[in-house]
UniProtKB/TrEMBL annotation:
InterPro entries: Acyl-CoA_Oxase/DH_mid-dom, Acyl-CoA_Oxase/DH_mid-dom_sf, AcylCo_DH-like_C, AcylCo_DH/oxidase_C, AcylCoA_DH/ox_N, AcylCoA_DH/ox_N_sf, AcylCoA_DH/oxidase_NM_dom_sf, Mycobact_Acyl-CoA_DH. This is Acyl-CoA dehydrogenase family protein. Signal peptide: none annotated. Its cofactor is FAD. The keyword Oxidoreductase applies. Residues 6-121 form the Acyl-CoA dehydrogenase/oxidase N-terminal domain. It comes from the Bacteria. Pfam families: Acyl-CoA_dh_1, Acyl-CoA_dh_M, Acyl-CoA_dh_N.
Amino acid sequence: MNINYTAQDQAFREEVRTFLQQELPTDIACKVKNDKYLDRSDYVTWNRILFDKGWSTPSWPQQYGGCTWSAIQKYIFEEECFLAGAPRIWPFGIGMVGPVIYTFGSEEQKARFLPGIRSGDVWWCQGFSEPNAGSDLASLNTRAVRDGDHYVVNGQKTWTTMGQYADWIFCLVRTDPEAKKQQGISFLVFDMKTPGITVRPVITADGAHEVNEVFFDNVRVPVDQRIGEENKGWDYAKFLLDHERTGIARVGAIKDRIAQLKAVATRETRQGQPLLCDPLFRLRLAELEVEFKAHELTNLRMLAGAGHGKVPGKIASVLKIRGSELVQKTEALMTEAVGIYALPFVPQARTDSWDGAPIGPDYAGSKAAVYLNSMKYSIFGGSNEIQKTIIAKELLTL
Ligand SMILES: Cc1cc2nc3c(=O)[nH]c(=O)nc-3n(C[C@H](O)[C@H](O)[C@H](O)COP(=O)(O)OP(=O)(O)OC[C@H]3O[C@@H](n4cnc5c(N)ncnc54)[C@H](O)[C@@H]3O)c2cc1C
């Protein structure tokens, strides 16, 4: 594998950098770089800027608004966005339900839903997990019973990320309780303002309101808002989860965070010396960087393969596991670098309006909350234990 970028790719990187320098709002980039929470308007503003440039859906087929970029160029774009402090594009519309709709939806559904997903004007959330259906998702119990040209939906979803902002939800519901569990599921999309929907916050260990419980009480959903065939929803869900997993390597994000870690270790001192001079700390940082480099190369190898038409397959599971482990390892080392000042748990330090007195250096206040928040990466998108089983099955059946 040639790991050097071509002249064309380097020119593309320059084009992306220039665009980011000119178009990424400074206040939003500042929030990202300083671990502040972003609100809905920050994400929508950035999505709209990308949309106006024609860059909001680079991975979609061109006929639906995708770019002609190679897999490597998509990676370069993502990396530069992370390094510049651009907010991530929330995956639920562009990365998840959009591909399901353009692949399995009717022409009417494509015309109705794809424009709002591309522009980011319509905020989507994912209603898959339930209190008794996470890793074993096919056990889901939310029922949809046909009543004329509507389904009547009853049940509960949980861990619904950013459901508090959502305009629409895509949901897996049980339409045939008699069938084998994977075969009785359908894929519905509906407006979050439909009567009978209640959203309740779930506050996570880091003090954040990122996830929710969503309750359905006789919610009436028109049948023409079912994507694809009735009882075939599991096939569409598997397709969607593959999309979810490939975006989860987080290479650009980890690279940026390691650079921030080095900056902190240069400023922090131990016994009068910059922490970066401490041989034990240097060793751990070097180990982290070596592991990260291997991860980056694995990701590039997958992208190079994709450029030659290879399907990512189970390597997506490898990238998900390593990506989440490295995020957690980086945050753990960051917390250690900040030292005692990372001990106070100050979740408010992540809000933009926080004007509390800093306990240590100004970058320290958010670190405990960010560390706790990083625990989520090995759970969502299919937990790491489940990914290991997927990899083991592939190897053992060779
Ligand atoms: C921050 C966050 C955001 C999320 N956002 C969304 C969202 O927007 N929409 C949505 O639908 N869901 C979302 N999820 C849910 C997520 O997909 C589930 O949490 C995940 O699938 C695990 O399911 P569970 O929580 O029910 O845990 P369980 O499935 O109960 O698992 C508990 C533990 O047991 C292990 N385990 C389970 N089964 C096996 C097995 N067969 N072999 C080995 N180990 C096993 C798991 O790895 C885990 O460690 C989110 C979760 C988190 C943490």
